[in-house]
Amino acid sequence: MGEWIGRGRKARRAYGFDEIAIVPGALTINPDEVDSSWELGGKRYEIPIIAAAMDGVVDPNFAILMGKLGGLAILNLEGVWMRYDDPTDILKEIAQATPERATELVQMLYLPPVREDLIARRISEIRAAGVSPIVSAIPQKAERCAAIAEEAGCEVFVVQSTVSTVRHIASAYKTLDLEHLIKGTKMKVMIGNCVSYETALELMECKPAAVIIGIGPGAACTSRGVLGIGVPQVTATVDGAAARDKFYTRTGVYVPIITDGGMNVGGDICKAFASGADAVIVGSAFAKAEEAPGGGFHWGMATPHANLPRGTRIRVGTSGTLEEILYGPAHLDDGSQNLIGALRTCMGSVGAQTIRELQRVEVCIAPAIKTEGKLFQKAQRIGMGK
Amino acid sequence: MGEWIGRGRKARRAYGFDEIAIVPGALTINPDEVDSSWELGGKRYEIPIIAAAMDGVVDPNFAILMGKLGGLAILNLEGVWMRYDDPTDILKEIAQATPERATELVQMLYLPPVREDLIARRISEIRAAGVSPIVSAIPQKAERCAAIAEEAGCEVFVVQSTVSTVRHIASAYKTLDLEHLIKGTKMKVMIGNCVSYETALELMECKPAAVIIGIGPGAACTSRGVLGIGVPQVTATVDGAAARDKFYTRTGVYVPIITDGGMNVGGDICKAFASGADAVIVGSAFAKAEEAPGGGFHWGMATPHANLPRGTRIRVGTSGTLEEILYGPAHLDDGSQNLIGALRTCMGSVGAQTIRELQRVEVCIAPAIKTEGKLFQKAQRIGMGK
Amino acid sequence: MGEWIGRGRKARRAYGFDEIAIVPGALTINPDEVDSSWELGGKRYEIPIIAAAMDGVVDPNFAILMGKLGGLAILNLEGVWMRYDDPTDILKEIAQATPERATELVQMLYLPPVREDLIARRISEIRAAGVSPIVSAIPQKAERCAAIAEEAGCEVFVVQSTVSTVRHIASAYKTLDLEHLIKGTKMKVMIGNCVSYETALELMECKPAAVIIGIGPGAACTSRGVLGIGVPQVTATVDGAAARDKFYTRTGVYVPIITDGGMNVGGDICKAFASGADAVIVGSAFAKAEEAPGGGFHWGMATPHANLPRGTRIRVGTSGTLEEILYGPAHLDDGSQNLIGALRTCMGSVGAQTIRELQRVEVCIAPAIKTEGKLFQKAQRIGMGK
Amino acid sequence: MGEWIGRGRKARRAYGFDEIAIVPGALTINPDEVDSSWELGGKRYEIPIIAAAMDGVVDPNFAILMGKLGGLAILNLEGVWMRYDDPTDILKEIAQATPERATELVQMLYLPPVREDLIARRISEIRAAGVSPIVSAIPQKAERCAAIAEEAGCEVFVVQSTVSTVRHIASAYKTLDLEHLIKGTKMKVMIGNCVSYETALELMECKPAAVIIGIGPGAACTSRGVLGIGVPQVTATVDGAAARDKFYTRTGVYVPIITDGGMNVGGDICKAFASGADAVIVGSAFAKAEEAPGGGFHWGMATPHANLPRGTRIRVGTSGTLEEILYGPAHLDDGSQNLIGALRTCMGSVGAQTIRELQRVEVCIAPAIKTEGKLFQKAQRIGMGK
């Protein structure tokens, strides 16, 4: 398995969403009669699309709204809501910065330290609205944050970094004992990100509620350019799904995998499920919601890194309400609205009754259609033509 | 057969028109002496290029003109001509809308219900001109529409949806019994669209007059983006042709396959035949005709979908008469005019006496030529340069 | 050999110049000490780069100049110099036409019939300057033109059409008997174009002086778009070279192959030789010469086709004298000048003493470098940036 | 090994940086605790990134600064500092030239001959600042230059040309005896460039301190376009590393390989090491330093070639100090700053303790992400949009 890339060395070809398409077969189902729910730690959720732990996407209000619509949204414990009593003006300032200034400004605005009182306060605000909060922490701070979050009443806790592994070497600080963290809490713990079969299996051994898949593919992420690392998401998801199935066969425990990053339109989300995902984490699609705190802008949580920023603030614009983005009616035909409707229509078109069936549908390798023509049309739309 | 796309999973590489080229061999024929006709349900047609059931392409007048020129044009029974007594102003309004407003406007203008009296009236109008009408209905309405169409004197009836299968699961409504429909009518029934060998075979078991091949490749179609589904047309056509040949070997019945979508220029049409098609359905090439009702615009019939629009209104411009587009003389060198002349010249260049011989000519996998240069030239033409 | 493009059908992957690169090895040679000459019909020519039979490239004056510089230029017997006593104004008119009008204008200006007296006169003009003329005719007129050309003193005669084969079926007109033509003349006859091994072998059986390889790859040619036919030039040349070598092994007769079309820069020319060519025919590179009759414009000889034009008039600009384009000094670094210097430097870099050695050098499949970046730079240059 | 590119001929697929990505595994390391140093001729250097021998990148001052920061910078003995007493105005003139004029101007400004007194003076200037100078000469002048350089106190000497081999055929001049040169000097001699396994092995037999890998991939280099030669850098580096390992196994001597060219961002540099490099030579990234002599411009050393220029003067802009480019803090997120930080973070992310471990990390073949989107964004940035 793999192609020769030089003398004595092979590399595997990995695939991204742009390179595959889902193949309809001999059975179709009425889209209104398919089941697109999924299960996390014994609880069933209607919406398998989770809002990403990014400051331009999720704030306490957005988390509340998402919860009321039947979905999940992750609040980032490294974000501005943990650094400022009221970050509303901060967010506006980021949105108004020129592209040239944006990275430096984000770096500066994330300098104030994270405050533990604010962590507890944000969680309480969400709970007070009747929604179960989900928060994310980086591995170095996971133990401390988990204690605060659990006390504040969190049910789901996310440990997330660009690359997370069970085995981490460091002498300058105490490394996270993931297994210990999970054992010591009643919260369901999601862990990520990772991309390989072996790493996913090692993470599953720690008994997380879910494993997050994805390194380097996101629109607001420049890991591929800055660090050279990353695996295209279709292959990463297929590998993660193989680990999940292997782990299930061996232990009887089903650890769902959540594909995170690189999905821009409904079609990409459908392809992630067809590649084996149980749920997906989406950033930019939700950043376009009227209720998103970024005001039409979106940036990766590695953007503020003081010494080596690895994210871009990108303009996504505002296209409709969160409800329209999730359930329609869509007023755009570009796949950015009515994501659940698109998912269900896809399931109907390929005869998949459930997400688990969608995971096994046939896909083909298919080059992106008419890149040239589409680019040309875009160029016209932004005014390059007359 | 297939490439590994991840651990334990293979996917087949599928090809589109941009990726192949027809290989001339050791025999050539005078283009004036080849035969480009095809047969549908026992009747021979001179032109194997059918105008698509799209409101920007076919109205009753266009259908009449096409019939007089020796070809076929499909009138869509879900279109504006079934919703309005006189949709002329409606079509103008769509053509005049800004790109931003177009999708929403189309959604709104398709809200008035389809009227059965108009269906009958349009069919009669075409018959009155001495042309045999062809109409298309969606599966849910096929039985009712077929009854009206047959009574109104239709000879060819098309059942068409994005993805059509013999087996459809729905409890909310009665599903179409395709075999029953075909048995119960004297009309020739064309059914589609589908893309896989198995599905094509199952559809052929119902004894249609033809099977339509193609999901997701059209210029005005965004199924790939919105739903993630689709198969590039060369592979879909090769698979459909394999099903046709298999069905013929087994039953002695030759069910022609019609490739629908994704052909922009004469070369694409030639490649569809070289991939195995008996006829092709073309939209945007005919939308450029002076006689096309779209006034230089073109939109997919999934565009009006109220909740999940999956088509784009695209500007194609008006480049000549339908007669010029079919038979020349061409005044443009871009392959958009004199489609029959191009087909015949291609047949002569590769030594194919008939469409059936063209179906077996050698093709090679060949990347699109100089994408960069062409894009660059286009950019210059639209005024990006000086 | 080949990839599956669908059920039961394989196609060969063919390669173009943009997809390969020449691999330097363990030997290098001083470029001043390599031999870049080639042999046609027993006569040795210093320059293996022939100017194409296109009206924007070669007129009698250009043919004379090229001959004096040691090279070959083909004058097209279907061109304006055979239709007008003095076509100077005609050529100016073509150069001044707007892009929109160009094809139609070229169609119109080629309507006056070819005059046999002018054929003889042009050949005499070239001979009078002490240069041996080369002219090209289409197969239908080859016998008549050959008689005139031979009488007027031609030594090399080219029979050329988009697709030429030994076997041609036509009842409306008498087909060319190539073998008879060649036997009946003392001129060296070059024949083309073709792309497959079998066709090249069949043509070689007729004992031509050379076989011309190339269908569909040229910059001013739109056969791929209009007719769908063509084979990328690297594969076409490798196949043609295989036919040449096979024919030589079998008969002891070495029929050189000449790669025609698709070479834009020195690097492409070097790659054509590395693919097996004995000589190359180049159009647009010479159309940039100050002495070229097109005045910075260039069009394919299928452009004037009245009913199905298959060529584009493209703007190439004027960049230097023919001598600079052939021998330098180059004032541009884009590979368009000092083509012979580039060829010799390439030969030195890869340790090829002769063209025959260059034909056997290693090549690798290498994607075009930084397409995006280059396109971006071009965009900047034409003024899209500030 | 290889694909068929035509009848009877295979070619190897070669890969570039844009086509691979590094795959994180099951182990991670604190980036502050990895070791990114390398060894050249028994001496250990902290920075494995060398500034290229190009006049827009390295002058005596830049060499001094680089040395003080712990790195290496190569001063070109064919450059303007060897032709002019004070080339400051010359460099300004190049920076101020219009793109159209740049190549010709560079050709003209490099006409004054190289002066031996200036070679010695520049080396002394660098030594006087307490930094060990590195200089590069072309093979034809290597013996004479080496003598001057050694006398002036150089420790490292580079023999560099586009394509360097042990075996060179020339009767017009005396060819370099590389083995003799290396035996006769106490300086450590680096030799290049080359791309194949066999050539690298032959060069290693001459006992150089290092072999430089890379033909044709650089941003300021047009060898691929002008000469058609080149091998994408990932494959070239993998092959070079295979030669190094083979040579080490056979002789016990470890000759480091240095990948030169084509690395634009931190991610590319990381991929070069993951492909097997011991160090890298970088041009355009350093040309962006405030201290770089090119003033935001950059040109290849083949650009001045009088008869066949093969380099482009490209605008890279000025983005920060050399220290920021090497060590951060980065103010841009595009991978052009904090190269050492990026390398160390990559090493941590993939669990590589040393460069030698990074050489063996898994890579996958991964197409460039979202070319279309990125081009689109770039287009917007340069003002094509509103």
Written overview of the protein:
The structure is a homotetramer of 386-residue chains. Chain A is of the alpha/beta class. Chain A has a single domain, classed as TIM Barrel, CATH 3.20.20.70. Helices cover 35% and strands 18% of the residues of chain A. The first copy, chain A, is built from 15 helices and 18 strands. The first copy, chain A, has helices at residues 60-68, 88-96, 99-109, 116-128, 142-152, 178-183, 197-205, 223-226, 233-251, 266-274, 284-287, 322-327, 339-349, 355-358, 371-381, and strands spanning 3-6, 9-13, 20-22, 27-29, 38-40, 43-45, 49-51, 72-76, 134-137, 156-160, 167-169, 188-194, 210-213, 257-260, 279-282, 297-299, 313-315, 363-365. In chain A, helix 1 (60-68) packs parallel to helix 4 (116-128) and helix 7 (197-205) crosses helix 9. Mean pLDDT of chain A is 91; it is low at 371-386. Chains in contact: A-B, A-D, B-C, C-D. At the A-B interface, strand 3, strand 4, helix 9, helix 10 and helix 13 of A face strand 1, strand 2, helix 3, strand 11 and helix 7 of B. Strand 4 (27-29) of chain A pairs parallel with strand 11 of chain B.
Write the layout of secondary structure elements.
Four copies of one chain form a homotetramer.
Chain A: E1 3-6, E2 9-13, E3 20-22, E4 27-29, E5 38-40, E6 43-45, E7 49-51, H1 60-68, E8 72-76, H2 88-96, H3 99-109, H4 116-128, E9 134-137, H5 142-152, E10 156-160, E11 167-169, H6 178-183, E12 188-194, H7 197-205, E13 210-213, H8 223-226, H9 233-251, E14 257-260, H10 266-274, E15 279-282, H11 284-287, E16 297-299, E17 313-315, H12 322-327, H13 339-349, H14 355-358, E18 363-365, H15 371-381
Parallel strand pairs in A: 7-8, 7-15, 8-9, 9-10, 10-12, 12-13, 13-14, 14-15
Antiparallel strand pairs in A: 1-2, 3-18, 5-6, 16-17
Helix pairs in contact in A: 1-4, 4-5, 7-9, 10-13
